[in-house]
Design the sequence.
């Protein structure tokens, strides 16, 4: 059969798919955590895909106004699940739907996770019941938002300036915005939707400042959506992405709320103005971890979508010829194209392993904390243990959140570039995907700040280890002796492909960095206070967090492969090796500097990365099919399952832009007058001198 | 009122809060500048004369109501397409009678404020017009001028190269131009949907004519891809010519103002004279004459690359200015209890995120200027060439070849660098970087196509890497090579060079360090290349095997070029008052580049592990030094608030006031109910779920 550029792609795709050497379903099950989970996932995906309100076919052409309205309709369509879904189902649904519609996911999550999460996490059980009765869980005559950030202050809770002053006479708090810089800003759901908010404000009782606490403040009258007295709200307007989310600003001018609207699970204020502080303050921040943990999973889901598009396209797109061929070469067959995409495919798999581990730890820890009463002295030991675990999870999730959200942004961007011009088309989703995604690198803790705080945590853990004290499992390796002794003769090939060696190489690199930074820290604190010393070591803290997190992803990947079925194990191992070796290649300075590897090893690693790319290349369709995404979730014609990319892409462009009139809408008003203009000559004064 | 209120800041005995402090802080920061800002601007612009000309043009743009950008970020695609057309119409008036250099300046400055208009006019003047001038004969050029191509009357051109199934690989294009000897015409045809011309800027709405790239087929023989002028629309009513189909490409990641379209040709007939015949000629009898040197036809592609390097600087400077001004007034977290929050510019890590990028933006300018000047000289030489001057021709061909590879690497790494600058500066502004009104989102979306068009950056880099290896091969054979790679001649010295206790703040040592890194990578790749050829591979196959090495070679070589050009420009042009501040930037750039790629220097043995610690300390040191002058360095870019178009980056530092005002101007707070309250929100909040009916029949 002869084919041309237009008809060749689906034929090629079928051939590529035929190269798969493993049972795709086994990898899908491995990724999802078993056949049972896969079935749950598929059920949720089809409930999304079949709902006409959730159809994303025309999404790329929506303007801001259309996107806002449509997102509200989708929130309404998804709201019944808020009541019926278990926690697990709810997470799956949000993550799966978030892959194709990040705005709806966020707009719903503002209420469901941030608002409800705060009431549940920081309110007493009675308070939680009260707000449930008002309609908070069912979302009836009620929509909540989360008023934390201020115009002049981001995630630094201590710096917030909104005040909640206790007025004992009326037994009320007075919520106030002292100046424009303290306006609540970026508040998702505020501009259009919310009736209530959880407001972060400084608790002031009898003139004393007790720090930032949470208060429920009604924003709008429920029956007509008009603003409550003293509440001013505006629309934040155009953002880089997530147009569907109605972010707004809020100012409070002496708004009075009952004392009981302060969320009192931890700090309490009595009707006589007596303030009781919790035994363990850290626990109030546990809720922030939920966001981080789910962003790690989101990084995986969004990455897998764009990698599938770029790799499918690479398998059917031809560009340039190498000598002798009549047809141009498929771009997937260029070694450099493989190097651009295949390590990222491996990275994406690694994210999933890291995400699952973090989610498991988080669920266990939260369940334990919610079962404890912070004010019961008998539970002190259990509480302290829970606090240690939370702290460790807090630090670990910081680095994972930062590097996976960055990793995902890089993947969207690199995949777009790998699709050449068609990656720039609105209809292949990369532009919107990137614009919607990247806020994840900023919100709920700016990635750089998170990394620095994690680096600080790592140095503190190292100090614990040096003092012979107990640290959590994920950091214990810092206290071990390195099993690698480089004698300058180089490392044999088998070693460079062995999981044990690669994990140990990363641990050695990470350990040396952390310990060297700890040495410097101990030197500096002789003359500086700890904060100053840590500031001096900013670059080092960042590097520690970066290498430790990479080490963590690599070791989790290998650990999880141990549980995989035999037929898929070799393929997963190739991916994991590719990820580890490529990571070394990207960071050769560290491994040379720590004398873990020799210059000769680096050359060998370069060729091993080439070899592994070639080995993985034939399996790319299988490895991406295993993500189990239908064309609905792909939402990019050049990434469609059947590979019939040009036909689908051409059809999509023409559906969205029917070619009816060769004249633009502004032909009469602008274009014609321009093309047919007669310039008036400058008059020349005719008078002779 | 409250001693713990971290919003209370005292400056010179007066109290300010988060909202009122920023302009005062900005004035303090500005006062720290130790060098004459104006002199720095002259240095960047290449002299006072250029600065004055730029200022005149900027004022003309800024004062023109048509170029008012107050609403810019809220325009939807339809609105921005129309506005862009109006702006193109206005700009075309300047193109007619101004010196070419001023036109270039105007385009470059417009490009900072509005990339869509820049491109949409560029589609005609850069691409269509450039192609007719560059590949048409003088008579042909005169003909199209007489039709209105020169001043855009009853005429608008576009450039139909890319096809749906084929990008920048000219050899793969499938549109055909078959010569019909009987009628003395070419028949232009699109053989199947994948050969549809795609991404054609100006096609969907504007263009009357196009230059189309099609395979020249005469008497059944395929002579490869040539360029033809084809009329697309009837002039009088803008309807399509017979055989032409055009559609709108619709939504793109960015550059909404450009009407990219697709074009299909169904046996469209054009006169033989519409083939642009400066190089390839077809006569009445169907005799085809091919040019002696294909390389000469590529000259016009270099123009685009050189101007993209310069655009990278222009756009980069806008965003680094915004982020650094904001960093000087934004406070976040407190390092000392009881004290106000710290300005984010004072965090060492924030300095490391932004200051090397500031240095990078400066470096881009030096290299873009240098390559631009080389390009102009070469083009002049080419124009002056006598037909029988063999030696002169060889020299020009060798210059063009070198420019081709130098500009490839420079285009790739400078457009990537600019994308990185926009992205990192956005993140450095935290949440406010994500606001539409501070410009990052739109600029990123508009910018990044530069990394793809006119040669995908990865492909360009690989081809630059190929040229580097070819130069090394030539050197080994004793053949002459161009200036840009002349350092490779010192191969043997470079192979074993070490720092040996020399100072890492000596420009000569730093340039040498990069020559060592680049030279060894190139030479090692060349060894491998020669080995593969020896094993029987052909050149293409050997180069494919060495893809990663080619990429690295081009990357390191280009960085070396940027560093060397920066130091050399300081040496030759900087006056005493600005020399040290410039050296501080150049040293920061060179040292940070080493830190980012420390593996290279350890691997070659030029540096030892302890030297890497020194490099890190020096980067910290230069960050601290440069930090004091950031307002001076960015003021020197000389951008008014119009060109900045981001309230958090405005000159006076009154960021929160301007930003709050902008948001409210664009989104007046009138109705707390959204437009869809009655249709969607209210029915949702007040819904009553219907209970499922339960069948009440009792079982018997």
Sequence:
């Amino acid at each position: 059969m002869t084919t041309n550029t237009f008809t060749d792609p689906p034929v090629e795709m079928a051939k590529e798919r035929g190269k798969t050497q493993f049972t795709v379903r086994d990898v899908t099950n491995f990724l999802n955590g078993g056949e049972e989970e896969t079935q749950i996932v598929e059920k949720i995906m089809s409930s999304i895909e079949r709902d006409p309100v959730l159809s994303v076919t025309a999404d790329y052409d929506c303007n801001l106004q259309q996107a806002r309205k449509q997102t509200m309709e989708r929130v309404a369509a998804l709201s019944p699940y808020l009541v019926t879904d278990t926690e697990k189902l709810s997470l799956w649904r949000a993550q799966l739907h978030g892959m194709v519609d990040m705005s709806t996911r966020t707009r719903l999550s503002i209420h469901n996770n941030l608002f409800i999460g705060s009431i549940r996490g920081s309110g007493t059980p009675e308070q939680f019941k009260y707000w449930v009765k008002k309609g908070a869980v069912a979302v009836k005559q009620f929509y909540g938002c989360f008023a934390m950030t201020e115009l002049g202050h981001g995630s630094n809770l201590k710096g917030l300036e909104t005040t909640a002053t206790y007025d004992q006479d009326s037994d009320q708090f007075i919520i106030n915005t002292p100046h424009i810089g303290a306006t609540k800003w970026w508040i998702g759901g505020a501009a259009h939707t919310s009736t209530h908010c959880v407001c972060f404000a400084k608790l002031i009782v009898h003139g004393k400042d007790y720090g930032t606490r949470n208060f429920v403040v009604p924003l709008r009258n429920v029956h007509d959506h008009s603003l409550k007295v003293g509440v001013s709200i505006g629309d934040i307007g155009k953002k880089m992405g997530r147009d569907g989310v109605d972010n707004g600003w809020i100012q409070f001018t002496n708004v009075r709320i009952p004392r009981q609207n302060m969320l009192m699970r931890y700090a309490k204020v009595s009707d006589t103005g007596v303030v009781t502080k919790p035994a363990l303050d850290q626990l109030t921040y546990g809720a922030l971890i939920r966001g981080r943990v789910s962003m790690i999973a989101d990084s995986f889901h969004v990455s897998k979508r764009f990698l599938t598009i770029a790799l499918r396209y690479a398998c059917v797109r031809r560009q340039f010829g190498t000598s002798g061929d009549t047809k141009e070469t498929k771009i997937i067959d260029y070694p450099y194209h493989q190097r651009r995409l295949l390590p990222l495919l491996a990275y994406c798999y690694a994210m999933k392993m890291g995400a699952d581990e973090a989610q498991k730890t988080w669920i266990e820890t939260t369940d334990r904390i919610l079962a404890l009463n912070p004010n019961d002295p008998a539970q002190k030991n259990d509480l302290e243990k829970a606090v240690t675990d939370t702290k460790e999870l807090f630090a670990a999730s910081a680095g994972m959140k930062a590097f996976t959200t960055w990793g995902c942004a890089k993947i969207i961007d690199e995949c777009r570039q790998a699709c050449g011009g068609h990656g720039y088309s609105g209809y292949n989703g990369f532009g919107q995907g990137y614009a919607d995604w990247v806020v994840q690198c900023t919100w709920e803790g700016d990635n750089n700040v998170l990394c620095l705080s994690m680096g600080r945590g790592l140095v503190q853990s190292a100090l614990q280890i040096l003092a012979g004290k107990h640290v959590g499992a994920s950091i214990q390796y810092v206290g071990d002796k390195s099993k690698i002794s480089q004698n300058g003769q180089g490392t044999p090939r088998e070693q460079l492909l062995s999981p044990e060696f690669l994990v140990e190489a990363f641990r050695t690199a990470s350990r040396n960095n952390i310990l060297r930074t700890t040495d410097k820290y101990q030197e500096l604190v002789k003359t500086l206070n700890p904060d100053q010393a840590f500031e001096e070591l900013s670059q080092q803290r960042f590097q520690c967090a970066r290498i430790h997190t990479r080490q963590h992803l690599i070791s989790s990947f290998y650990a999880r492969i141990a549980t995989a079925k035999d037929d898929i194990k070799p393929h997963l191992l190739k991916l994991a090796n590719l990820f580890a070796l490529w990571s070394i290649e990207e960071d050769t300075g560290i491994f040379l500097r720590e004398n873990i590897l020799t210059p000769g090893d680096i050359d060998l690693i370069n060729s091993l990365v080439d070899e592994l790319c070639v080995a993985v290349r034939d399996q790319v369709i299988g490895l991406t099919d295993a993500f189990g995404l239908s064309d609905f979730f792909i939402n990019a014609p050049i990434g469609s399952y059947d590979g019939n990319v040009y036909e689908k892409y051409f059809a999509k462009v023409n559906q969205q832009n029917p070619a009816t009139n060769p004249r633009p809408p502004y032909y009469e008003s602008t274009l014609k007058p321009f093309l047919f203009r007669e310039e008036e000559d400058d008059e020349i004064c005719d008078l002779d001198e | 009122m409250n001693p713990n209120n971290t919003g209370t800041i005292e400056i010179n005995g007066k109290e300010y809060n988060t909202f009122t402090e920023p302009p005062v802080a900005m004035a303090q920061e500005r006062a720290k500048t130790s060098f004459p800002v104006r002199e720095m601007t002259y240095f960047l612009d290449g002299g006072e004369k250029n600065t004055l000309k730029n200022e005149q043009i900027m004022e003309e743009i800024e004062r023109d109501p048509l170029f008012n950008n107050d609403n810019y970020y809220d325009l939807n695609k339809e609105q921005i397409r129309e506005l862009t057309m109006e702006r193109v119409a206005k700009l075309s008036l300047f193109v007619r009678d101004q010196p070419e250099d001023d036109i270039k300046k105007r385009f470059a400055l417009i490009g900072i404020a509005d990339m869509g208009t820049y491109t949409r006019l560029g589609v005609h003047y850069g691409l269509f017009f450039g192609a007719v001038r560059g590949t048409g004969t003088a008579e042909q050029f005169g003909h199209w001028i007489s039709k209105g191509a020169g001043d855009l009357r009853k005429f608008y051109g576009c450039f139909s190269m890319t096809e749906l199934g084929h990008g920048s690989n000219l050899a793969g294009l499938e549109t055909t131009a078959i010569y019909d000897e009987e009628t003395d015409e070419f028949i232009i045809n699109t053989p199947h949907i994948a050969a549809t011309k795609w991404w054609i800027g100006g096609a969907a709405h504007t263009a009357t004519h196009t230059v189309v790239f099609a395979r020249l087929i005469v008497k059944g023989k395929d002579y490869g891809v040539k360029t033809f002028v084809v009329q697309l629309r009837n002039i009088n009513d803008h309807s399509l010519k017979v055989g032409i189909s055009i559609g709108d490409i619709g939504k793109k990641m960015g550059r909404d103002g450009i009407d990219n379209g697709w074009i299909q040709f169904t046996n469209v007939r054009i006169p033989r004279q519409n083939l642009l015949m400066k190089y390839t000629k077809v006569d009445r009898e169907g005799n085809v004459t091919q040019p002696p040197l294909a390389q000469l036809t590529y000259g016009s592609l270099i123009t685009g690359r050189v101007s993209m390097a310069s655009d990278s600087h222009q756009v980069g400077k806008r965003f680094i200015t915004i982020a650094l001004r904001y960093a000087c007034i934004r406070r976040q977290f407190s390092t000392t209890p009881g004290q106000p929050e710290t300005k984010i510019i004072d965090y060492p890590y924030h300095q490391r995120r932004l200051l090397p990028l500031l240095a990078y933006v400066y470096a881009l300018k030096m290299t873009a200027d240098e390559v631009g000047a080389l390009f102009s000289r070469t083009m002049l030489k080419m124009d002056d060439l006598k037909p029988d001057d063999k030696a002169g021709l060889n020299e020009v061909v060798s210059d063009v070849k070198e420019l081709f590879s130098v500009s490839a690497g420079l285009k790739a790494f400078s457009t990537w660098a600019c994308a990185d600058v926009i992205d990192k500066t956005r993140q450095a502004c935290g949440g406010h970087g994500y606001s539409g009104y501070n410009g990052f989102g739109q600029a990123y979306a508009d910018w990044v196509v530069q990394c793809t068009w006119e040669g995908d950056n990865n492909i360009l880099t690989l081809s630059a890497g190929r040229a580097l290896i070819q130069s090394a091969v030539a050197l080994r054979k004793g053949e002459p090579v161009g200036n840009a790679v002349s350092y490779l001649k010192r191969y043997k010295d470079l192979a074993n060079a070490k720092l040996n206790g020399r100072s890492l703040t000596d420009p000569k040592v730093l340039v040498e360090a990069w020559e060592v890194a680049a030279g060894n990578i190139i030479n090692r790749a060349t060894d491998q290349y020669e080995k593969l050829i020896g094993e029987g591979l052909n050149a293409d196959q050997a180069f494919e095997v060495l893809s990663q090495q080619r990429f690295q070679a081009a990357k390191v070589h280009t960085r070396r070029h940027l560093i060397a050009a920066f130091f050399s420009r300081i040496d030759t042009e900087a006056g005493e008052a600005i020399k040290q501040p410039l050296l501080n930037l150049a040293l920061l750039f060179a040292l940070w580049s080493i830190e980012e790629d420390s593996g290279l220097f350890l691997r070659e043995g030029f540096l030892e592990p302890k030297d890497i610690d020194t490099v890190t300390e020096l980067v910290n040191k230069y960050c601290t030094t440069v930090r004091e002058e950031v307002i001076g360095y960015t003021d020197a870019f000389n951008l008014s608030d119009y060109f900045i178009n981001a309230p958090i980056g405005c000159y006076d530092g009154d960021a929160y006031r301007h930003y709050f005002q902008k948001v409210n101007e664009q989104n007046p707070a009138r109705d707390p109910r959204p437009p869809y309250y009655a249709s969607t929100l209210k029915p949702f909040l007040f819904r009553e779920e219907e209970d499922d009916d339960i069948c009440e029949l009792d079982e018997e």
About this structure: The domain at 446-625 of chain A is CATH 1.20.140.10 (Butyryl-CoA Dehydrogenase, subunit A; domain 3). Chain A touches chain B through 145 residues (CB under 8 Å). Chain A has 23 helices and eleven strands. The radius of gyration of chain A is 28 Å.
